[in-house]
Each structure stands twice: as structure tokens, then as C-alpha cells.
Amino acid sequence: MTQSAPPAASAPSGSAPGNPPIPSPPPAPRPPFQPLTRPLPDLAAWTARFRDMEIPVLASTAEQLELWRANEDAVDAHLLGEFLSKDPLMTLKLLAHAASQRSSRLLTDTETVTAALVLMGITPFFKAFGEQPTVEQRLADRPDALAGVQRVLHRAERAARFALGFAAHRADPDAAVIHSAALLHDFSEMLLWCEAPDLALEIRRRQEADPTLRSVAAQRAVLNVELGDLEQALMRTWRLPELLAHIVDDKKVHDPQVRSVMLAVRLARHTAQSWENPAVPDDLIEIGQLMSLSPAHTLKLVHEVDGVI
Fold first, then answer.
1. Does residue 72 sit in helix, strand or coil?
2. Can you tell me whether residue 134 is helix, strand or coil?
3. Can you tell me the distance from the alpha carbon of 245 to that of 243, in angstroms, rounded to the nearest whole number?
4. What's the pLDDT at 4?
């Protein structure tokens, strides 16, 4: 059966050939945020929920993108990539979009933000990513949840710096991918704070009440899933690069790249409040074993990476 061509677009009412076009109406306001308050039954349900959610980004990211949108000539892929790589949620959105646009003719995945931008081009990027919703707008009425997601975001940024430092010391050729993997290691927790803040707070409450309670046990009890399993399911759904998904997978603990990210995330978590955390010496021993350094030299390296004088 022959498919008919779509009808030609008619001129807007009140316009005529040669006259300036009538400005388009402003975009409709986003519907109010409706948080998820009850756990979903299984991994498939959680994957579908997060797959379809509109992922917010940091307000600072959204603001800078609008400044650059007005003057695209002021930015190139490397400058834009360096800036966006500081925002885990924007990094996630961009890599997922790049994966969805990936041609079967390409032999390699776009595993970093800069690689994705080089492939897309600056103008197509700004066309694909309009004005961005922000974490701050989404959680404006939930300061407790906003503080929670900001802690995870800050921890991810520090973990990415640690992981990059470990990779550089090991002369790992995939150092940029390891940085991205550490930045995204806890992205499902970030999404949980944004989509279901009450459930995220309940997990934290249980762990604060029982310091011996493991994170995965608290997650299973509150959510019916482990966030690590949800993360891997989402990475498959979004067709994120296989190397990135591999390095993020804590269950492949014997891989040096996976271990670099795991230890970086662990150190960022244990030192979030203070370097005096009693778990830090054990972290330094394991990091030193990975990089063939003594604990003292390991401490010196991680302090340099973290900017500790």
C-alpha cells in the first residue's frame, strides 16, 4: 500500500508571503513534579520508570548552556566537554543521547562527553538539548532531598578526580573513560533522589539507625531492587558504551579498571566529612596495592589529587 505524503504546512494565520513570520508561542510550562512515594515491584518496573523520566541537571549547567547557546562561536567541543563533565547528570543525558544516535557504521562507542560532542557537532548539540530542567527546580520544595542529591553529586565529582589520578599513575590508556565511569558510578542513586526522594531518605534513615546495615540490604528492603542492578539495566536500555558499563560494574572486582573506580568511589564516600574516618587506612592499603605504592605515598597522592594541603 502506498503511503501518502504528509500534508504541507500551512502558513500561520495572519502571515503572508514576504511578511515576517509570527513568533512561535513560548513552550508550555513543565507539569509539576509528582514524586514516586511507593516502591515499584521489580527491576523491570524501576528500569521503565527511570528510562522515561526527564533527567534534570545542575542549575549552573543549565545557566551556562543558555549563555553559550546565544553565542555558539564562543565554545568548541573540548571547552564544552570539560564543563559538562563536571555534571554527572548532564554527562549521563549526553552519553545516552549519543548512544541512541550512534550509526551502525561506527566501529567504536563514544565513551566520553568530549567524544560525543565531537561526533555530534556544537550546533546539533544545542538543537538536541534545549533549555534544561534543573535539580534545584525539581526539588525546590524538598530541601532535605536537594541536600541529599547534592551530596551524591559532590561525592561523584571527587570520586572521578581520584579515579583519574589512579589511572594516570597506572598509565591506563582508558583514563578518560575511567573518569566518566567514576562520575557515573552512582547515577541510579542520583536519579532516586530526584524521582523518589522519600524512598532515598528512608534508605539513609535506616543506615543511620544501623551503621552495620549494608547499602545493598537497605536498598533491597526499601526499593525491592539493588541500585547497582538498576544501573546496569539502565545502561543496557540506553545502550551506553560497553567499556563504560563494564568499568562501572562492581561485581567485576578483579579487573584493575573496575577496582580503580570502586576504590575511588569508596575513598570519596569515606572522606566526605573528614579524612579522619577510621575506614580510610584500609582504603589507602588497597589503593596502594593497586598502584604499587606504600600507604604513606598513597596518602600523599590522594591528598594532591583532592587539593588537600
1. helix
2. strand
3. 5
4. 39
Tell me how far apart the alpha carbons of residues 83 and 123 are, in angstroms, rounded to a whole number: 17
> Residues 221, 129: contact at Cβ < 8 Å?
no
Give the residue ranges of DSSP H helices in the chain: 43-52, 59-69, 77-84, 88-100, 113-120, 122-128, 135-138, 143-169, 175-184, 187-195, 197-209, 215-223, 227-237, 242-248, 256-270, 280-291, 295-306
Please tell me the distance from the alpha carbon of residue 220 to that of residue 161, in angstroms, as a whole number: 30
Distance CA 55, CA 59 (A): 12
Smallest CA-to-CA distance from 110 within 260, 238, 271, 251 is with 238
State the pLDDT confidence band at 251, using cuts at 50, 70 and 90. confident
C-alpha cell at 5: 505524503
pLDDT at 50: 97
C-alpha cell recorded at residue 246: 563494564
pLDDT computed for residue 246 by the predictor: 87
Confirm if 115 and 50 have CB atoms less than 8 A apart: no
| Residue 242: predicted pLDDT | 86
